[in-house]
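Internal ticket #5521
Category: modeling
Description: The requester needs a full-assembly model to guide mutagenesis choices. All entity lines are attached below as received. Residue total reported by intake: 490.
Assigned to: D.W.
Attached entities:
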Amino acid sequence: MRVRSFADRIGEFLSLTVSEQNALAGLEGRARSLRRGAVLLRENDRTADLFVLSSGMMMSYVLLHDGSRQILRFLFPGDLAGAGALAYATSPESVVALADSVVCLFDRAQVAAVMARHPRLALAMTAIDQAERAAMTDRLAGLGRTSAQARIAAVLLDIRDRMRRSGEEVERGFALPLTQEEIGDASGLTAVHVNRMLRQLEETGLIARTGGRVVLSDEARLARTANYVDRLSRVDLSWLAPIPA
Amino acid sequence: MRVRSFADRIGEFLSLTVSEQNALAGLEGRARSLRRGAVLLRENDRTADLFVLSSGMMMSYVLLHDGSRQILRFLFPGDLAGAGALAYATSPESVVALADSVVCLFDRAQVAAVMARHPRLALAMTAIDQAERAAMTDRLAGLGRTSAQARIAAVLLDIRDRMRRSGEEVERGFALPLTQEEIGDASGLTAVHVNRMLRQLEETGLIARTGGRVVLSDEARLARTANYVDRLSRVDLSWLAPIPA
DNA sequence: CGACGCGTTGACCTCGATCAATTAGCGTGG
DNA sequence: CCACGCTAATTGATCGAGGTCAACGCGTCG
């Protein structure tokens, strides 16, 4: 099982000083295990904690008044979540485990202390946040302006890239850890229509499926139809590099 | 015309020390005026600047391959934008003026310096960012899961609240500074359908229109149909308060 | 005056939702 | 090993929200 710390994640974008590494390591206390399906955080729960997913897979979502669900984000090892606690007393979103998972919790005051002592880390966190923001705007544009096929393609590419980033071997396909209903709730579609679109992607030769596994057969075309960009991989913090003490 | 500095905005959430006020004031150099319709930033432009809108109104958006546009955010005095520069060498979105506007530009290195010297300001910025993120997730849920009526209602409420926050008098209605096409591009609808939905909201008594002015006649019902929450007004930084030096 | 942008309205069509079975997979208990 | 029950995937038939296309009114500006 893949395990990634927050330091690993930030280290992808910035080479860390020893002191910075220690500061991040200091955050990694209070681990908590969750079974598949377990709820870590419920919308409107009072909370003062942020957390990093160390292993497994989770998702965050909101529920609307009519009971429908919008999945906001899938979480993979190394991802930070619950950052809403920095601005709100109660959580703006729910978070549940999609697979057996382990998270590391830390109080927002700890985060604040680390940010105060290590400005570069604060900036790196901000930058990663900006990347997530950009990914979210892509999703916004997807929901507002693209076809069902394109949205499904985008979900597949996103999952694949995040799995790869978290260390999975995905080149020869991967086991989609989502039900079609979940794919639908992420892309604003019905489970039934998700099914049809997957079939269509398959018939067009863009993907192949066997059992629960998916292979992205024609990645280029898939990315084009989905308007897809891997935002995390484009982060460029080189302008920050000169600062290390 | 309403003018707001970045210090004014942060001051809404946190009472600032003199030193913090000075630091923020130091950022406010390099003003730039823009005529209605002027483009401040184009997607993929190389940029290293962030900016605060001091007066006027702007919007940010992305264009898809087929030429359609998704409006991401409307900007009002006091709003920070261009934060993508903290993570990317080129802008992930375009920004144009919807009304004659004035912006204050500052290089990301200046921002980094202020954040390093004033950790509380860094946290306040992060918190405001989280509020914007929450607002964006609301929009995501809106586009993915709500009806055309609800989306239009959400746009109206959002604009109204942001105008009010920036100091406009909106209690007895306000002049909608958007074309129906723009409302459509923000809500993932066609200009034609926006027109129909506005009429429908009018006929149902939720809003009233005279000339370009809009009155939100039945705010409660409007907010309920739109699933609307004013995210900025719920920000709670009281946990940060104890820290000031 | 004419061109243009925006709002408005009608006719028609399509994509994706909804409703309704049916099938496949899988863990459980006998 | 098999029957059962549950969940997810699949497929067909039909419906409707919202898109598309087209026309027209109206105000502004050159």
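Resolution: model delivered.
Comment from assignee: Chain B has eight helices and eleven strands.
Ticket closed.
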